[in-house]
């Protein structure tokens, strides 16, 4: 039976505005971030989308986003966390090495106490697969840019997300059947908050 996953990137945070890396570290939502979440809530209401279950990473920016989008009970899961950047956490984004196109940075951050890209990718994929194999037809999960891009790389071309304007509060719709995810659409609500 075909199911639907709405995989949402958390809303704008202070570190997003300051262009700082935030993997396992955290920063609060901004006023714009709060407006983005309320815009997402309205989108789901306007589309009559009702969730059977809701999940988010253990980061407060993800749970704060989820709590603004829906008032239903939810589960926080470590498997939905962002990649750990180790000693780069909270540092300016310009320090991030540029990956070779279409390749991950692999184990670059491990030497700085961070996480291997492919380990993080497997963690996120396993978590979302487990979620979708439960007795739920429509699921909302709030996660992070890197985690979502790495997950999408397994099932589709994540470069098209970047070209389409994958921003804070973007929602990716995936169908799920027979342990396979299929990317259906990118719902980008950022511009409606201005």
CATH fold group: Rossmann fold
Number of strands: 6
Give the % helix.
Answer: 25-40%
Number of helices: 6
What coarse outline follows from CA principal-axis ratios? globular
Mean pLDDT: 92
SSE order in H/E notation? EHHEHEHEHHEE
Strand line-up in the sheet with most strands: 3-2-4-1-5-6
CATH class: Alpha Beta
**What would you report as the Rg, rounded to the nearest angstrom?**
16 Å
- Which structural class should the secondary elements be placed in? alpha/beta
Largest sheet: 6 strands, mixed
Strand content: 15-25%
Tell me the span between the first and last alpha carbons: 39 Å
Whole-number tally of structural domains: 1
Task: Based on the coordinates given, report the CATH architecture.
Answer: 3-Layer(aba) Sandwich
Query: What is the CATH H-level superfamily?
Result: Phosphoglycerate mutase-like
Low-confidence parts: none
Binding site for substrate: 9-16, 61
Organism: Companilactobacillus mindensis DSM 14500
GO molecular function: phosphatase activity
Protein name: Putative phosphoglycerate mutase (Putative)
């Amino acid at each position: 039976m075909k199911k639907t996953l709405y995989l949402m990137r958390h809303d704008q945070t202070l570190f997003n505005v300051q262009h700082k890396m935030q993997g396992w570290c955290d920063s609060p939502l901004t006023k714009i971030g709060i407006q983005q979440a309320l815009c997402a809530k309205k989108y789901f209401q306007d589309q009559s989308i009702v969730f059977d279950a809701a999940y988010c990473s253990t980061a407060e920016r993800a749970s704060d986003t989820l709590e603004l989008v829906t008032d239903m009970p939810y589960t926080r899961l470590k498997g939905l966390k962002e990649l750990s950047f180790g000693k780069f956490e909270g540092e300016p984004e310009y320090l991030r090495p540029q990956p070779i196109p279409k390749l991950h940075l692999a184990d670059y951050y491990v030497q700085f106490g961070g996480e291997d890209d492919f380990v993080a990718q497997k963690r996120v994929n396993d978590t979302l697969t487990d979620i979708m194999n439960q007795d739920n037809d429509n699921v909302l999960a709030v996660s992070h840019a890197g985690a979502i891009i790495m997950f999408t790389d397994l099932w589709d071309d994540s470069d098209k997300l970047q070209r389409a304007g994958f921003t804070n509060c973007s929602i990716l719709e995936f169908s799920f059947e027979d342990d396979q995810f299929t990317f259906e659409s990118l719902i980008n609500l950022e511009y409606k908050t201005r």
